[in-house]
Structures are given as C-alpha cells and as structure tokens.
Amino acid sequence: MIGRTALRFLLSRHGNQHVAYATKTAQKIGIIGLGNVGSTVAKNLLKSGFTVSALHDTNPEAGRDLPRDIPRPKTPRELATMCDVVMTALPAPPHVKQALTGEDGVLAGLRSGGVWIDHSTTDYQQTLDLANEAGKKGIGVLEAPVTGGMALLKQGKMTVLVGGDKQLFQDCAPILQQSSKMVLYMGEMGTATIAKVISNMLAAVNVVTMGEALQLGKRGGVDLKSLFDAIRFSAGNTYTWETEAPLIFNGTFEPDFTIGLHCKDLNLGYELARKFKVPLELHAHAEQIYNRARVKFGDDVGSTSPAKLLEEDLNEPLQIDGFEDWTYTIEHVDGSMAVVHTTKDKAYMDK
After folding, report:
1. Per-residue pLDDT for 16 more than 50?
2. Which residues contact 82 (CB under 8 A, 6 or more apart)?
3. Rounded distance between C-alpha atoms, residue 28 and residue 30, angstroms
4. How far apart are CA 173 and CA 259, in angstroms?
5. Average pLDDT, rounded, for the chain
6. How would you label 65-95 residue by residue, b for 16+ Cβ within 10 Å and e otherwise?
7. Where is the 6-phosphogluconate dehydrogenase NADP-binding domain positioned along the sequence (predicted)?
8. Which of the four pLDDT bands, split at 50, 70 and 90, describes residue 122?
9. Residue 24: helix, strand or coil by DSSP?
10. Cα-Cα end-to-end distance for the chain
11. Under a CB-based contact definition with an 8 Å cutoff, are residues 253 and 259 in contact?
12. How far apart are CA 314 and CA 300, in angstroms?
C-alpha cells in the first residue's frame, strides 16, 4: 500500500519519459472494457481520427458495433504490447485489478514510457497502489472517471475528472477531449476518484428525495409536468432533477447506469468516509434505500429505481405523457453547465 507522497516521487522519476499525445495517428490506443463507456470512447476516438489499435473485453459479444478489423487480443497483456496508451473502462475495482496485474495484465505488457488511463469509477487505495506499480515500470497513469450521463458521452460532452501528473495530463488531453466537453484536472492521484464518488453520492441522495417530492406533489394534486418545470426554475433545482425525473416520467429509470453500479459507488463512498473519518448520516440512509431497491428489482435495473420503491409502496405511478422521446444535451454558459431539454421534434418547452 502506498501513500500520495511516495507515489508523487515515483511518478516524478519517470515523468520525462512520456511523449506528447497531441497528434491523432502517432500513438496507438487500446481499450479494455467495451461496455457503455468503453465502446463509446472508442467510437469517439475513431470518429475524430485517432488510431484505436486493439480492443479487449471478457465478453466476446461486447462492442460488436465497433469496426471488425480492429484486433481483439485474448489478454490485457497482449493488448498492451500493441499499444502506447491503454484505456480501461471497467465496472468495479476487482475488474480493474484483474486487468492490470498478473502475468496476463496490462502492467506485464505495456512498455516503459507507455500510459494507462482509467475511466473506471474504482477504489481510491487500489488506484494509488496500481499507480505505484505502474510507476516502478516507467508507466504513466491518469485516473479519469467520467460523469454526466450516457446521453452526454455519446455526444462527446461528458465531464472527465483527471488525477495524476499534470504534465502527463496536458500531454493526453487531446485523447480525453474526444469524449468530453469539460476535462477538469483535479490534482494528484486519487483526487479524481474521490470527486467522482462524491458526485454519485450526491446523485443518490437527490434521487431518493426526488421520488418523495414527486409523490408529495402528485398526492397534493399538482400536475407532475408543471411541478417538473416549477422546480427547474426554482431554488430546489439540481442536475439530477433535470436529467433523472424525465426517466421516472417515461418509466425507464435510467437504464444506461444500473443500480448495481450505483450501489458499488455508494459503498466506495462509505469506504472513503471510513478512511477519512467523516460521518455520513444522509448518505447511509440513501444507501440503505438503494440496496433495498437493488434486492427487490435486481442489479440491472436503472439507477433511478429507488423512486420505483415508493411508487409500489403507495400504489402511485409517476409516469406521464410527453417524455417518451425526451433527451437532453448541455451548454456551458459563463463557466456553468446548463441542461437543454429536447424531444424528437422540438425543444421541450415549446411542446
């Protein structure tokens, strides 16, 4: 186990070995994990003219909509030998560790001077430990969890939170910018993981309170579409309200981000709180509700499903017309992020 100070020393020893990654075709990029994030990152890079040299996933059916002529080596190590930059986008800490370590792992195959970029939302201490092992081999590491929702990732507008060596971050920024409209450098290794976990903790509390608020409004006789708009233009508004309430209204409950993954992130938050000795009363209650929804509905339902618990408890569905083809994008205005709601044919507010 390694701390930040020792890790900073190790990375400084190897920092001058990394070349700039500003040119699209000079560097060979490999991607491990072809779920929602990994496959979309691959598409964004290819669309922008970058060289994606290899793909890998333990599920042979994953990423089948990606070009068939891109090699699919059998192991992460084999992929790493073919690449200058390896990007991982994996569900949970054990998957990251398995892909990086051992005789078939990335660290056994990636050359000195290569770079590992991890888009996974994973364990803080494990991130430091793996970065330490990579640093001993002369491999640069950036943690780069993504946030904002799959709709934005597909548009290349996700926010990427980055931790690690600042020069390496600047060198790799052109790669990261293909899937993000906002790339934020958070600081040394571990800081981006903490920020991403906190974001998902806040989202969970928002989802729980949102479900309660919608039920209160409906039982009080308030039209739910009118309530949605009222909160959007009031002090109670949040990004979660704007982007998740419509997924309750249309009954999909955010299928692109599962409750199993969200519960994993909430547990990561609990582990951080224990490490840094911070009490989490509201988070603990929200986590209990999330786990109850997970047990009842299964790991693969959408992450907004805690609101469905209250629907069933009260026998009060929250689905309404007008959100069947709803989607959203974002605009950055004076340093802030504004959500733009649309339906298939026109802006949401014009309906």
Report:
1. no
2. 28, 30, 53, 54, 71, 73
3. 7
4. 31
5. 90
6. ebeeebebbebbbbbbbbbbbbbbbbbbbeb
7. 28-187
8. very high
9. coil
10. 56
11. no
12. 23
**pLDDT band for position 197 (cuts 50, 70, 90):** very high
Q: What is the pLDDT of residues 206-225, one digit of tens each?
A: 999 999 999 999 999 999 99
Q: How far apart are CA 287 and CA 306, in angstroms?
A: 10
Assigned token pair, 293: 């929804």
Q: At 334, is the pLDDT very low, low, confident or very high (cuts 50, 70, 90)? A: confident
Q: Are strands 115-118 and 140-143 parallel, antiparallel or unpaired?
A: parallel
pLDDT tens digits, 274-316: 999 999 999 999 999 999 999 999 999 999 999 999 999 999 9
210, with CB counted inside 10 A (0-12, 13-18, 19+), is: buried
Q: How many C-alpha atoms does 128 have within 13 Å on its Cβ side? A: 15
Question: How many alpha carbons lie under 13 Å from residue 18 in its C-beta half-sphere?
Answer: 29
Of 181 and 94, which is predicted with more confidence?
94
Identify which of 302, 313, 314, 290 has the alpha carbon closest to the alpha carbon of residue 249.
302
Find all residues with CB under 8 Å of 265, minimum gap 6, and list them.
121, 196, 197, 200, 201
Distance in angstroms (rounded) separating the CA atoms of residues 347 and 326: 10
